[in-house]
């Protein structure tokens, strides 16, 4: 039976969703989506170029920023093919294996981005609590090992997901809720038990994004404790200002993610267009 389900899944295809109820207006979304993707690629590419050519930016904080920019570009390129297929070429169909591959890369780079935000929080702790040893602690070798560890963690935790998905039987509707493939969206269409997939997905979220959010929160507790020990109010503000860009990145990543998760779990009665908008905001907003 498993072999039959697997062979059936390989011949299966999904229909990606543009704007529910407004298919005739989908081509017009090429322009705003194209602008967002162009802004993402140019913005992050500019960051990488400036950091590379400017020697004064060859510091740990900017190396982590470079990793974050590369992650944003990779995540953007992971969703670009399906977006163009829907809104430009009006071809919403995607074969099963391509959908699974896109799902894999989207989840991997999402977890990588969360890990980079944790490493940037660690960077701020070291810079504020041990400024004299900042460069000696976060050497090029240490930063490289942190980057490899972040990527390895993401690949390892997401690696079982495609295999779990390929063993799901799909025999009902093949219309996905979003313009790209996600694990939870594909599970919704399965006509068999998804208990293992759901349990594993919950474990991954708790021990990656959930743990990362907790570590970031704890890091800012240490940072605030250190800042409050500074006598001068001007120095306090100056020190906290070095964390503003990181705090903004954290909010842009976690707030849309939490909003999309809450709507996906508790907003099933809401119109499909709400789910589509929240899913795209969750994916596109942090990239900009």
| Pattern of helices and strands | HEHHEHHHHHHHHH
**Total of helices:** 12
User: How large a portion of the residues is in β-strands, by DSSP E?
Assistant: under 5%
Which superfamily, in CATH terms, is the homologous superfamily?
Rhodopsin 7-helix transmembrane proteins
Binned, the helix content reads: over 70%
The average pLDDT value, as a whole number, equals 83
Number of strands: 2
Distance between the termini: 45 Å
CATH C-level class? Mainly Alpha
Classification by helices and strands: mainly alpha
Radius of gyration equals 21 Å
- Name the strands of the widest sheet in spatial order: 1-2
Principal-axes shape call: globular
Q: Provide the CATH topology.
A: Rhopdopsin 7-helix transmembrane proteins
Q: What is the domain total for the residues?
A: 1
Poorly predicted residue ranges: 1-10
CATH architecture type: Up-down Bundle
Major beta sheet, specifics? 2 strands, antiparallel
Pfam families: 7tm_4
Protein name: G-protein coupled receptors family 1 profile domain-containing protein
Membrane topology: Multi-pass membrane protein
Keywords: G-protein coupled receptor, Membrane, Olfaction, Receptor, Sensory transduction, Transducer, Transmembrane, Transmembrane helix
């Amino acid at each position: 039976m498993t072999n039959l389900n697997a062979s059936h899944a390989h011949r299966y295809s999904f229909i990606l969703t543009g704007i529910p109820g407004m298919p005739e207006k989908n081509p017009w979304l090429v322009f705003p989506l194209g602008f967002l993707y162009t802004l993402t690629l140019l913005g992050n590419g500019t960051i990488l170029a400036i950091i590379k050519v400017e020697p004064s930016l060859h510091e740990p904080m900017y190396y982590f920023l470079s990793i974050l920019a590369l992650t944003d570009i990779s995540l953007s390129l992971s969703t670009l093919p399906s977006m163009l297929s829907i809104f430009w070429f009006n071809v919403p169909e995607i074969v099963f294996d391509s959908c699974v591959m896109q799902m894999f890369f989207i989840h991997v780079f999402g977890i990588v981005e969360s890990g980079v935000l944790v490493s940037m929080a660690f960077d701020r702790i070291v810079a504020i609590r041990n400024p004299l040893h900042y460069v000696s602690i976060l050497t090029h070798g240490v930063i490289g090992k942190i980057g490899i560890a972040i990527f390895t963690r993401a690949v390892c935790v997401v690696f079982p997901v495609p295999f779990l998905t390929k063993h799901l039987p799909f025999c009902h509707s093949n219309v996905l809720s979003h313009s790209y493939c996600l694990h939870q969206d594909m599970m919704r269409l399965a006509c068999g038990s998804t208990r293992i997939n759901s349990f594993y997905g919950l474990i991954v979220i708790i021990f990656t994004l959930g743990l990362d959010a907790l570590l970031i929160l704890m890091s800012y507790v240490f940072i605030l404790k250190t800042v409050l020990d500074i006598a001068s109010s001007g120095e306090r503000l100056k020190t906290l200002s070095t964390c503003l860009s990181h705090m903004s990145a954290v909010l842009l990543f976690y707030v849309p993610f939490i909003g999309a998760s809450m709507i996906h779990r508790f907003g099933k009665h809401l119109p499909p267009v709400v789910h589509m908008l929240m899913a795209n905001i969750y994916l596109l907003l942090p990239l900009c």
